[in-house]
Amino acid sequence: MSVIKNTILLFKSDKTDDTRDEYQDLLELNNFKVMMVKTLTFQYKNLDILRQKLLNPDGFSGIILSSPRCVNAVSQALSKDKLEELWNPKSNFTVGETTCKEAIAKLSIQCKGKWSGNAKNLSQLIIQNKSEYVKPFLFPHGNLKTDILKVELSKENLTIEEVLVYDTLPNPSIERDLFECTDRFTTIPEFLVFFSPSGLHSSLEYLRKIPVDLNLVKLITIGPVTELAVIEQNLKVYGVAKSPTPEEVLKAIL
To answer: Are both 61 and 132 inside the same structural domain?
Structure first.
């Protein structure tokens, strides 16, 4: 059994487009070999309900987009031109830089919260101007969302109107993909990067087929929630990226 030095395995969800992966690009520029295993896929739903709410922005202070999947759901529900016209005058927010970029590219919607990194930080940003928000925020979300945002905003009498727009499902080929990345479960990269608790849980049973103590591998997590999920599995966390960006992942590795 061998640990392959200077090699990184990214456990990421399915991408919403066919563009190059920015995490892979940056890490390869810093002389790491990068492999990826898709941990999750997404099934969209309730887009008709979302569309009706998007067509009535007057009922909301703005929209909160917590992931690229939420952006993709909004994009499927209503045309880009219509979204720009109806929602750009609103106070819109995203969790993280990637989601903010997606909102601009796919929806033509300008959003605050680019550097928030997680739901708790975003809630504090929204609360700073709480007197401006007398109406609820529209909050499209996935089935694995936490209640952090809702709880934190409710402390200041701010509300969100939730719409479940996608289900998160395990990648059915994850075992095969991991089998190939680890040379038939006989090697393991020096670094394993987990982007979410669900991604960790969907891959961990297969990682444990590799005959190595996972505490000898350097585990990197995106944010404190994923960090806690790793710790709950009695595993050590080597580094934590403060926000879901390639630059922060690189800092956690180095």
So the answer is: yes
Phi-psi bin for 11: left (phi > 0), alpha (psi -120 to 50), beta?
beta
Q: Give the pLDDT confidence of 133-172 residue by residue, as tens digits.
A: 999 999 999 998 989 999 999 999 999 999 999 999 889 9
Model pLDDT, residue 20: 75
Is residue 138 within 8 A of residue 83, CB to CB? The reply is no
Q: Both 248 and 194 in a single domain?
A: yes
Distance CA 103, CA 94 (A): 8
d(CA 186, CA 210): 6
pTM for this prediction: 0.77
The domain that holds 147 is classified in CATH as 3.40.50.10090
Q: For the chain, how many structural domains are there in total?
A: 2
Q: Categorize the per-residue pLDDT at 13 as very low, low, confident or very high, splitting at 50, 70 and 90.
A: confident
Same domain membership, residue 58 and residue 32: no
